[in-house]
Amino acid sequence: xxxxxxxxxxxxxxxxxxxxxxxxxxxxxxxxxxxxxxxxxxxxxxxxxxxxxxxxxxxxxxxxxxxxxxxxxxxxxxxxxxxxxxxxxxxxxxxxxxxxxxxxxxxxxxxxxxxxxxxxxxxxxxxxxxxx
Length: 132
Hints:
Elements: H1 2-127
């Protein structure tokens, strides 16, 4: 009988070891499934946050680009307008002076001749040349 008890005890111990092994495998499988589900959930969350961040960056850069473009256009328009106004003002002030200088330059040869006539006459007097 002692042999039967040892045999039965070993058989029972074997079943217990196999049962514990099966339970360990099942627990490992369950933990694996839970881990995969958690990783899928985490991956989806990271993916969604990445998409949100990408969308925000795209929108922010588009807004910044639009604002910069508008500012450049405003600056160019303002600068062009000021340059044209300055050109008109300079033209308005310079044209009369240019006209005045041109009229004086046109009169210059005649004035030089008039100024030189007395000098020429004196030189002829001293040289003994008579005026013709």
